[in-house]
Amino acid sequence: MKKIGLTQFLIERQRDRKLINADLRLLIETVARACKAISFQVTRGALEDMGGSLGTQNIQDEEQKRLDVLSNEILLEANEWGGNLAALASEEMEHPHAIPTEYPRGEYLLLFDPLDGSSNIEVDGSVGTIFSVLRCPKDAAGPDEQAFLQPGQTQVAAGFALYGPSTILVLSVGDGTHGFTLDPYVSAFVLTHPDIRIPEDTQEFAINVSNMRRWEPPVKRYIDECIAGKDGPRGKDFNMRWVASMVADVYRILSRGGIFMYPRDTKNKDGRLRLMYEANPMAFIVEQAGGAATDGRERILDLRPQKLHQRVAVILGSKKEVERVTSYHAA
Ligand code: F6P
Fold first, then answer.
1. What is the predicted pLDDT for the residue at 1?
2. Terminal C-alpha separation, the chain
3. Which of 129, 159, 193 is the last residue of a domain?
């Protein structure tokens, strides 16, 4: 069967299904083009000292690497002139970035984590870019931080690029989750994984077990039961995976099921991952693929954000497993 490219996929959603308009299509194509540029920079690795520290810290007090800052610049430069955005926000910037006055202002807001999992750069592991698109409220002044503080269920598009052995773009505009592989010879994203579905059950979990002593009892109970395997209440053996790069861990779950958790604990009282540009877009993609995502108590997409860089506990993946952990929190 002939495989279609990202542009044809988006045109079908614009023209035939009326799911997106021309501005949103251009926005997604621009983000995808920026991801291609980042993908190329990732392959430069040690040749350009991509994992080298810049000696600066982002708003999260995390050390900024050369590739973190470069990826942020690539996304900003690609997106600020198209006339489809009202403002942008990034993990690497404390405040939203306004569209320069020489360019027209559009109706969308773009949020991104330019380089997720950056501790993997120097070990040549997988990293990625996560993005979320919201509509800018009509009356938004500025638009300032307040304009971005919308629950994840209002996202009009979300996606991520995974820079692994091949570069994959995973995207949802609200009609399922679809995966595209970058064909580096023609520099085009080709639809290789249409309508991704996450199996409801799983025998694989992903969590940083070194934090076990700090977890809340419901998470400890769930993992203890998985580890007990055939001899425990689950009656089956489980496998464990942890890439320490959310994009790679979530892509594995989209491919073969599983559960991913970064729960709140006594050190990270609000959780560790960021709601607006990590948890929300990933929850949207996972739900659109038939999975579930909660913070242990509430559906992530229902949470009302208070701050742009807010942290949140994340439990996502195969539906029945996420429901099980969430029910342990209610018990
Ligand atoms: O957002 C940061 C991130 O790198 C995620 O991609 C990843 O899941 C997590 O942090 C890794 O955390 P840890 O360093 O505890 O393994």
1. 67
2. 49
3. 193
